[in-house]
Design a protein that fits this description.
Radius of gyration: 15 Å
Helix content: 55-70%
Number of strands: 3
Shape: globular
Strand order of the largest sheet: 1-3-2
Largest sheet: 3 strands, antiparallel
Structural class: mainly alpha
Order of helices and strands: HEHHEEHH
Distance between the termini: 36 Å
Number of helices: 5
Length: 102
């Protein structure tokens, strides 16, 4: 499923995505996202009693987790751990570059 221009504009503006927008952008179902939010594996911002919003970091995390679960048959907890480790590696690389060591 290709991302449409409206979705690209939303992401470029760093706006928060609705559950439906996140699902379309990451090509997952709402149940997939809901299970991971409820398990504490994916961060969501609650805007009211029933609606969540997701930032671009959450979208990237979902895409990473989906790939790991699909390609390696990883359980959700392992996929979330690997996503955390990849984020930490990227933060450390940025720090090294800023320090002139990378």
């Amino acid at each position: 499923m290709a991302m449409n221009q409206d979705m690209l504009a939303v992401l470029a503006d760093e706006a928060l995505l609705t559950l439906d927008e996140l699902c379309r952008a990451a090509e997952v179902g709402p149940d997939w996202v809901t299970e991971r939010v409820q398990a504490g594996l994916l961060a969501a911002r609650r805007v009211d009693a029933v609606a969540w919003r997701f930032d671009n970091v959450a979208l990237q995390r979902v895409r990473c987790m989906v790939r790991l679960e699909r390609d390696f048959d990883a359980v959700p907890e392992l996929a979330a751990l690997v996503a955390d480790l990849q984020d930490e590696i990227e933060r450390l690389r940025i720090r090294l570059r800023r320090a002139g060591l990378g």
